[in-house]
Amino acid sequence: MSAATAKSKLLVPSSNPVHQTMDGVHPFSNALPFAKVGPMKFLRQFAARIVGQSIRIFARAITAVRADWKGIEPVPRQRVYFANHTSNADMPMIWSVLPPAMRRTVRPVAAADYWLKNKVRAFVGPEVFNCVLVDRRPEVKDKPMDKIIAALDEGASLIIFPEGNRNMTDDPLLPFKAGLYNMGVARPDVDLVPTWVANLTEIMPKGEIIPLPLICTVTFGEPIHVREGESKDDFLKRASDALLAQRPEVRT
Amino acid sequence: MTDTMTDILLLTIGSFGILIALTFVGEVLRAREEPDFQNPVLDTYMTRVQSWWGMVAFVGFALLMGRIGVMVLFAFASFAALREFLTLTTKAQADHLSLALGFFAVLPLQYVFVGLGWDGLYAIFIPVYAFLLLPIVSALRGNPDRFLMRVAETQWALMIAVFCVSHVPALMNLDIAGYGDRSLLLVAFLVMVVQLGDLLEYFFGRRIGRTKIAPGLSPKTWEGVLCGVGSAMLVGALLNWITPFGTFGAMAMAGAASLVGMFGSLVVASIKRDRGVKDWSHLIPGQGGFVDQLDSVIFAAPIFYHLTKYFYT
User: Fold this and answer.
1) Is the pLDDT of residue A7 over 70?
2) Closest residue of A to B87, CA-based?
3) Contact A212 B80 (CB under 8 A)
4) How many CB atoms within 10 Å of residue B210?
5) Where do the H-state alpha helices sit in chain B?
6) Residue B128 near residue B155 (C-beta atoms within 8 A)
7) Cβ contact (<8 Å) for B86 and A212?
8) B240 vs A123, B85, B176, B190, B246, CA distance in Å?
9) Which sign, positive or negative, has the C-alpha torsion B152, B155, B157, B159?
10) Ordered domains of chain A (ranges, CATH)
């Protein structure tokens, strides 16, 4: 949750061992029976569980984070949760409020350069949160969208931040990147759920060191789909409006 | 086991007795209904009773742990209440440090001063020192936009959630002649008369309430409040054996605390209405947040503390 830059120069090639394990051994569930994995692997999975629970308990203790299921039921169903992005804590917050069964099948889509930067992150990103790590450099052959579609085809739900980068402006949302539209076109059956994470800008504004223990709410809205014949720009506008509509209204 | 401990145990068991009766009534009503029928009133009632089980268990356990237990319980309640309050107040990034100081310095220090029994300091620490120093910290960041709103609302949050709440454990510091270490029981007395008064005010308000006190703000009625305060006085009289007040003194103190508490919750309702929220948070199932649950105790505590100090020490 440190204030690391979202786009860093230090990029790790996608042939990183951690990365490969993710793709090769298990598709999306990070819980495999003991018999199928070695003792070391089992220990790592166990450690990942403990770290995951600790993050969840920490998030609850500090921000009393809570889900508001406005437009969907908390049931296991394949979904793409697309959320606003103001802080590195956004993804852990959404992850923390999902019920256990949903948390096991959800995979946040995250930048490989951020999550493979050091050993701790390379453990937390891929193994605790089970991230789909994408490399956003144009010269990389392993295209982000291919990996995302592959994860969807394995049955995973996804958490994505369609603004691309953390929003440091005063506007509530940055213009969406095309990814959400491409997913919606490629896999039209998957529900695209607008997910608003409230208050994180006040909890941890850019440049501050101490997080404030204010209450964080994650609001899930009604799912949307790409309509037949809908243009990319029209859809992205509609998706952005659907996400803004989940913002809880507090008069000050 | 000391007398004080025996009394606390008796009170806790008595409260559990009431809760068993309330749970039993709810279950009987539920059993009488058609299996598929959902009764929202009954469901709310049962959720609230369940939350009450939790609260009685927490308070009873804290009291049995003695001074430290009560301090820790109310420090946590303060933290939860301050978090709810500051989530809804006006603030800017320029206030980040002063808000962090509120949570991580002012709140713990206030409880340390109460714990040490420094009554001269904990009575002025937030109204004087925090009041003057935190706005300086905010001003140093050089953002004048809505400045008075920001610092005033932060101060309000600290007064309500920290200063007032800390006056419940501060009751243990009162040195009442011939009462000895039994001042712990004043905490139980205050919480019980105020909360039971609230509960009965709600019940009578629903049954016989006609004249709204503040229409458009709260469903509270004069009839409900009158019956609620009357009930609190009765409860106070029944509990007079744990107080140094005597029967009539206990009735008067219970009535005063309950009355202030009920009008205090009108103040808290006004703030909620202004901010357009129904509850302060969702941490206590069926009741809302800590501020929703404690609003009347928050207003009653400093008044009860100072009345006791003035008349009985």
Assistant:
1) no
2) A214
3) no
4) 9
5) 3-32, 40-65, 67-88, 96-101, 107-116, 119-122, 131-139, 147-158, 165-170, 184-208, 222-238, 246-275, 290-312
6) no
7) yes
8) 61, 34, 15, 11, 6
9) negative
10) 17-244 (3.40.1130.10)
Residue A108: beta bridge partners?
A: A159
Contact A66 B282 (CB under 8 A): yes
- Beta strand A132-134 with A217-220: parallel, antiparallel or unpaired? unpaired
Contact list, B88 vs chain A (CB under 8 Å): 250, 252
Identify whether the C-beta of residue B59 lies closer than 8 Å to the C-beta of residue B14.
Answer: no
CA atoms within 13 A on the CB side of B43: 4
Q: What is the dihedral of CA A140, A143, A148, A153, to 10 degrees?
A: -130
Cα dihedral sign, A43-A49-A53-A58: positive
HSE toward the beta carbon, residue B109, CA cutoff 13 A = 15
Dist CA A35 CA A21 (whole Å): 18
* Residue B239 φ then ψ, to 5°: -95, 10
φ/ψ of A212, rounded to 5, equals: -85, 135
Q: Is the confidence at residue B193, as pLDDT, over 90?
A: yes
Domain spans in chain B, listed from the N-terminal domain onward = 1-65, 67-173, 174-313
pLDDT bracket for residue A250 (50, 70, 90): low
Contact in structure between A108 and A8 (CB atoms under 8 Å): no
User: Model's pTM, two decimal places?
Assistant: 0.84
Please tell me the number of Cα atoms within 13 Å of B114 on its side-chain side.
Answer: 28
